[in-house]
Amino acid sequence: MKLLVCIKQVPDLESRFKPNAEGVWYNETDLAFRMNEYDEYAVEQAILLREKLGEGAELTVLSIGPDRVVEAIKKSLAMGCDNAAHIQDPAASAKDPWQIASVIATYAKDKNFDIIFTGMQSQDRGSAQVGVTVAELLGFGCTTTIVGFDYDNGTITAKRELEGGIKGVVKLKTPALVTCQMGLNVPRYPTLPNIMKAKKKEITVIPVAELQAEEPLATTTSFHPPAKKGGGIVLEGDVGDMVEKVIAILKDKTAVLR
Amino acid sequence: MKTLLIGEYREGKLLESTYELLGFAGELGAETAMLLVGSDNQLPAYGGTLYLADAATCGEYNPDLHKKLILEVVQKESPDYIVFLHSSYGWDLAPRVAAALKIAKISEVIAITDGGFEVGCCNAKMRRSVKPVTAKAVVTIQAGAFTAKQPGGTPDVHKLAATGGGALEFIGYEPAEKKDVDLGKAEIIVSAGRGVGKKDNIPLIQALATALGGELGASRPVVDAEWVNHSHQVGTTGQTVSPKLYIACGISGAIQHLAGMKKSDFIVAINKDKDAPIGEIADVLVVADVMQFVPALTAKVAK
Ligand SMILES: Cc1cc2nc3c(=O)[nH]c(=O)nc-3n(C[C@H](O)[C@H](O)[C@H](O)COP(=O)(O)OP(=O)(O)OC[C@H]3O[C@@H](n4cnc5c(N)ncnc54)[C@H](O)[C@@H]3O)c2cc1C
User: How far does residue B20's CA lie from ligand 1's centre (Å)?
Assistant: First the structure.
């Protein structure tokens, strides 16, 4: 069986974001990057399945982006993926989800993957459409936002998370794609021996031009902070002073403290 | 301008959020038609054209078939925008429709701008203005971003007959986990977020809740990491609360969390990041390390 997991590298979201020169996405200077959180669940689930299948199964991790994404790829290899495809694209962040999905689908189409795992969305762009679009382009069955996954003999049983904590249980036949939600599993930390082993695993580098033919369907015209709603009080400085101030405000503005 | 609105229906009921689609179309100043895979006896209070397929035969979650129905109606109506809620139903189905038509898909719209749409990004810290390049587009709107509009009236129903399954077989629903605390009734909630750092720190947050006579709440990652039981989770996939006082400790303020607590009367947020989106709705933002500030506040409150 052939498995593919698609990952993205995203900046640490506790960073301060500034627009880039074109004013349509963030400036990468000073940002620290790591694997998109939703993708960590996808990687873990793919590895769990890979381990269950044992001999004969192969798990490839794919990431599109500039050279920095190799860090996230290496982490996936150290977690347990067998090999990797780095689709080299310094301008990946300027592509719309349709283009990204088309690149992945073009890569995957003649490789006979049985199951593709993706995160349900990226933490920076948050469009929640790349996975589903890849499935559509490949003609794979697809379900999204899964918090439960089981595979047996060509059939996936997945639990989708719906609003209010309700879940929907679905079955689908492979080939299929699932998009993974937080809480699906507990992603492992790569161990030192596995990090060493991962150094020998193969990373195939493919320039994006070999896979990309699609024009964007949507464009970003501006990247900016939200308009400040204001009104709120911001306290900074000495902890003791701030405690006094908060108590005074609560006494003044709420009925909960007397 | 014309919109095709895709209503939502679950467990035999029309979902109220369907009316947010009409709110969006109203703001856009667009004509509307609606499509619903639902039931005859759960019609929306809407006097326009309604394309109705029967959920009993088409399934409530059967995206391949629902896509087919939508494409059929798109042929007839030729809408400029096909509009979904950005929900577990919408984000699953909308990209399939967009891919089939090869048109732009704009996700989780929070506002309409000149010729385009405003969407959140970077975990709600930043915004993007996005425009479709294609003449038509698929749009999903953020839950709660557009005020629901119930125009009233009885729809002009056009029945859609559809057959055929799809790649998926829907087995059934599983109810949400039982709640051992009903946060909906709490007057004070002190919630722990990932910024609390580790499970061992949860008692310090609980101590503040106890000192104030309130309940402990939590953001989702804290629940997923099993630091706190699911019954304490606040947000779209947890509980919706509206206490007199909500204290968010180390919570960034993602939309799915805000959706569950923004109706609180008074909100205090403790965050080391001055730009955290929780600051947008907080009445007081304390820029501090939560593990320094919270115990100090607890000590003062307890006195
Ligand atoms: C379909 C879906 C449903 C979801 N449902 C829910 C839901 O019901 N409820 C929910 O909460 N989330 C939900 N989420 C997840 C949501 O998108 C966010 O990921 C989540 O709310 C983030 O939790 P957090 O704020 O605790 O963590 P983070 O976003 O990681 O934020 C941590 C915050 O703590 C601050 N911080 C870090 N260290 C310190 C310190 N020492 N002192 C002070 N501050 C510190 C940081 O600045 C940051 O702002 C859902 C997501 C999806 C996609």
Answer: 26
